[in-house]
Design goal:
Structural class: alpha/beta
Strand order of the largest sheet: 3-11-10-8-7-6-5-4
Number of helices: 13
Number of strands: 13
Oligomer: single chain
Largest sheet: 8 strands, parallel
Length: about 350
């Protein structure tokens, strides 16, 4: 579809938040989506998302006081993103599996996040922590069952519903909300039917309460035609992550970005994360070594509540910090299924213009 003939996208409306372009930039930790990327996407009319996962890894106090350092970094990154965004929408992604999850949520609220997106577990207590804050709340779901659990629980316990629902499919990057066996068997057409069921379910819940709840789809969204596919199915927008890694504005190191550009389709594999979830990553020397045996690691940085430092095959914080800093040979290189399609660095504006 030519630039002059394509139909302009409808805005994504989340209560009183209006994103001119219906694109949420997915949260990517550690250190991949910070203020630079989130601010740039927000400035172009999308929704920029900062990942709070070990967000303070560059700060001097991180080794000795990781949680306190992360909490301060959430506020400072939000502040810096707002300066770049020029009034655009900036939010955070906080994993439910994060140790001290409540404190991370409160730090985001204090920092003035417009939106909190929360997955890696069901955020059943998120409304209780948020209270009557203006910040919009969005659970990540991967199935109709998890959608039903969240909607029913939030309504019964807190008399509220999500402001937005993010459906994260099996082609997403990083940790995935599926069992390893499911990832081997799910096909796109079958999952499209699940997406339709989730959208219908959320719409029904919203209508009963007189509330419009937009649904966005994540996982494998790389170009405009992917977005149009989901909009035709009834989604209000999409979440895009992998495409934004190879931008000049992305907060990752040049070497991390280059690893995407160099990757071939067969290099992208499903790995078992040390925190007990399957994930998608680029097969590199580190992942090959991790398959062979335990990789020694330093002190615990208190990242995920399910991690057992004395039993973990490797430290996921160390592996992801190495990725962000550019030590890609000794890193876990999380990516989406389309990472191999990146051929060059791009500007955020050019990507957003494609989706506009």
């Amino acid at each position: 579809m030519g630039e002059n003939t394509k139909k302009k996208s409808r805005p994504l409306i989340i209560g009183d938040l209006v994103a001119e372009v219906p694109v949420i930039q997915g949260g990517m930790g550690v250190g991949i989506s910070l203020s630079g990327l989130a601010g740039a996407v927000a400035a172009q009319g999308g929704i920029g998302i900062i990942s709070t996962a070990q967000i303070g890894y560059r700060e001097p106090g991180f080794d000795d006081h990781p949680i306190e350092t992360n909490l301060e970094a959430i506020k400072s990154e939000l502040r810096k993103a707002r300066e770049i965004a020029g009034g655009g929408i900036v939010g955070v992604n906080i994993m439910v599996a994060t140790r001290e999850y409540d404190r991370y949520v409160r730090a985001a609220l204090e920092g003035g996040a417009d939106l909190i997106i929360s997955g890696a577990g069901l955020p059943v207590n998120l409304p209780a922590i948020a209270g009557d804050a203006k910040t919009k709340l969005a659970p990540i779901v991967s199935s109709l069952k998890s959608t039903e659990v969240i909607c029913r629980y939030w309504l019964k316990k807190y008399n509220r519903l999500p402001d937005l629902v993010v459906i994260e499919g099996p082609r997403a990057g990083g940790h995935l909300g599926f069992h390893m066996e499911e990832l081997m068997e799910i096909d796109d057409a079958a999952y499209d039917e699940e997406i339709k069921r989730i959208i219908a379910h959320v719409k029904e819940y919203g209508h009963k309460q007189g509330k419009e709840i937009p649904v966005v789809v994540a996982g494998g969204v790389y170009e405009r035609k992917d977005m149009e596919h989901y909009l035709e199915m009834g989604a209000a927008g999409v979440q895009v992550a992998t495409r934004f890694v190879t931008t000049y504005e992305c907060d990752a190191s040049p070497a991390y970005k280059q690893s995407y550009i160099d990757a071939k389709e067969e290099d992208i594999v499903i790995v078992k994360s040390p925190v007990g979830m399957p994930g998608r990553a680029i097969l590199n020397p580190f992942m090959k070594k991790a398959k062979e045996g335990r990789i020694p690691h330093g002190k615990c940085h208190l990242c995920i509540s399910t991690c057992k430092p004395d039993q973990t095959p490797y430290c996921i914080t160390e592996a992801l910090v190495n990725a962000a800093k550019g030590n890609v040979e000794d890193a876990l290189l999380f990516c989406g299924s389309n990472a191999y399609r990146a051929k060059k660095l791009e500007y955020v504006k050019d990507i957003m213009d494609e989706f506009r």
